[in-house]
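fyi for ur records
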Amino acid sequence: MDKKTIEEKCVELLLAKGLTLTTSESCTGGLVASRIVDVAGASGTLMQGFVTYSNEAKETYLGVKHETLEEFGAVSSETAEEMALGCVFKAGTDVGIATTGIAGPGGGSPQKPVGLVYIACCIKPEVKVRELRLSGSRREIRNQAANAVLELLFEMLSGD
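which gave:
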């Protein structure tokens, strides 16, 4: 039975393939990068992480278009995709992952409820985005989002 964590599996695959990684996080606030850094050897793949909690930070550091944020909002598939692409471009890495969502307990609306999270993974040139509907406490939603983006990364690295 494989007892490796998802972050261990991801770091192992990234290192084996010689790929560099950058994270771009909003609702997870650095949790994904922290989990990757917990893995021995992560310095061989993780180049940097962006915590872009505000719209201004998403625009300034990741190149998310102002028009995208105006039209679709920070919590959208479009923004998640631009975050993943932007961190790859800005950091000059092979792989970028992104999280953006509403962790709660407040901040939700009928159109965008608490627990709505978008995750994205870019392995040049391909980008995959997923919409998640999560539940639980703020901490639980953040942990579930971190798990989900690492699972997406593993899936893309594995070619599944």
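Residues 6-158 form a domain with the Maf protein fold (CATH 3.90.950.20). thats all i got for now
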